[in-house]
Amino acid sequence: MNISIIGATGYSGVELIRLLKSHPEAKIESLFASSQAGNELTNVFPHLTNIAQFPLEAIDIEKTAEWVFLATPSGVSGKLVPSLLEAGRKVIDISGDFRLPQETYQKWYGKETAEESLRQKAVYALPEWFSEQIKGAQLVANPGCYPTAASLGLAPALPYIDPNSIIIDAKSGVSGAGRSVGLGTHFGEVNENINAYKVGKHQHTPEIEQTLTRIGGKETIISFTPHLVPMTRGILCTMYATITEEVNFQELYQSTYEGKPFVRVRPAGSYPKTKEVLGSNYCDIAVHVDPRTNRLVVLSVIDNVVKGASGQAVQNMNLMAGLEETAGLEFSPVYP
Ligand SMILES: NC(=O)C1=CN([C@@H]2O[C@H](COP(=O)(O)OP(=O)(O)OC[C@H]3O[C@@H](n4cnc5c(N)ncnc54)[C@H](OP(=O)(O)O)[C@@H]3O)[C@@H](O)[C@H]2O)C=CC1
Ligand SMILES: CC(=O)N[C@@H](CCC(=O)OP(=O)(O)O)C(=O)O
Predict the structure, then answer these.
(1) DSSP state of 334
(2) Is the CB of 143 inside a 6 Å radius of any atom of ligand 2?
(3) Percent of the chain with pLDDT strictly greater than 90
(4) How far apart are the CA of 176 and the centre of ligand 2, in A?
(5) CB atoms within 10 A of CB 45
(6) Residue 206 domain-assigned (yes or no)
């Protein structure tokens, strides 16, 4: 499979290069960037010396290979995808441009995206829940990082909780904000610090609601508060919901995710840590029942750049191509 990456010099782009270099069926053919076009990949990322030698090209649809990953900031793929589809490419979009209905996207991202008729061609690609739709798709919208951790963590419980009681308290490392320099991710601002941001207005709120509504079959409105924590990679979601029907949640989660290679339901009473999934495509989940408050507490951890972006994108490529879902992704987390 010949592959192009657009946005190859960002954190998800460079993670795609790492994963695809050791994928048994994939061959990276070309890399595209924006401000770095004209430069060499190893000038931007010296850690890839003798591993990946590529020029960084200015975006040119004609020069793209059959499989195209878009790892560009929001607002870019909405403009590129029409020509990519016309050229017959298979497209995996890591950005948020094709995840939401056009109007909802414009409201929450404050940007334009593709026409709704085109947007509807995209399959929302959370593989553990929508694999049948992903197989054979030409365009997939890779889920966001927080929506991946939150949706995988809450989905099995939906028939047994009040969908409008859900509270998601999430923490992310700074790589979630991308590689470009900004005051919010400056060392002096992040180190020895923790802060909430975008309370009540984070762009992943409607995406999580859309996914839970679709899986649970009931209109779901959530409270979602993300926090920035002083680490590089990783997301922990601590999620609360009122229980409406008593079931054995541990057994429910284990049976739901049986045969799903990248979701590991941890033993009852566990406290998964972000380092236990670092650099891997796993999402580790633990469920706790608090009988005093009648609440379910779910803990879910991922590496935001792998299961939250590029690893899940490769998992989706595997499904689209009819390969083993795990191809190129069977490695252990890095520890410590
Ligand atoms: N980081 C994460 O954990 C996750 C990110 N995402 C999403 O993935 C996408 C990429 O994120 P991330 O890798 O963090 O971003 P980065 O900011 O690290 O990288 C952005 C990439 O896009 C290129 N780029 C910048 N502006 C433009 C433009 N106007 N047109 C074309 N290309 C452009 C940059 O090229 P150059 O360097 O040459 O300027 C760079 O290669 C975003 O939409 C993000 O929201 C989704 C899930 C998780
Ligand atoms: C820590 C941090 O800043 N994370 C980013 C993650 C967003 C992202 O990846 O953007 P998409 O909307 O394209 O999915 C944020 O909260 O905005």
Answers:
(1) P
(2) no
(3) 97
(4) 6
(5) 17
(6) yes
Average pLDDT, the chain: 97
CATH number (domain holding residue 8): 3.40.50.720
**Which domain range does residue 182 map to?**
146-304
DSSP code of 55? B
Using CA atoms, how far apart are residues 91 and 3, in angstroms rounded to an integer? 10
* ∠ Cα 8 185 80 (to 5°): 30
pLDDT at 105 exceeding the cut of 90: yes
Atom 28, ligand 1: which residue's CA is nearest?
A: 34
H or E element: which one contains 289?
strand 283-290
| CA 180 to ligand 1 centroid distance, Å | 8
* Predicted-complex ipTM score: 0.98
| DSSP-based helix, strand, coil % in the chain, nearest 5 | 35, 20, 45
Please tell me whether residues 82 and 153 are part of one structural domain. no
DSSP category for residue 243: B
In terms of C-beta distances under 8 Å and separation of at least 24 residues, what long-range contacts does 173-176 make, across chains too? 173/229, 173/231, 173/232, 173/233, 173/234, 173/235, 173/274, 173/304, 174/228, 174/230, 174/231, 174/232, 175/11, 175/232, 175/233, 175/304, 175/305, 176/145, 176/235, 176/304, 176/308
DSSP structure string for 290-328: ETTTTEEEEEEEE-TTIIIIIHHHHHHHHHHHTS-TTTT
pLDDT at residue number 184: 87
* Residues 114-141 pLDDT 10s: 999 999 999 999 999 999 999 989 999 9
Query: Does the global pTM surpass 0.90?
Result: yes
**DSSP designation for 212:** H
Residue with tokens 């700074």, as numbered in its chain = 174
Which ligand sits closest to the CA of 203?
2
Decide if 202 contacts 226 (C-beta within 8 A).
yes
Whether residues 273 and 153 fall in one domain: yes
Q: Which of 127, 167, 133, 174 is nearest to 150 (CA)?
A: 167
Give the residues across from 172 on adjacent strands: 228, 235
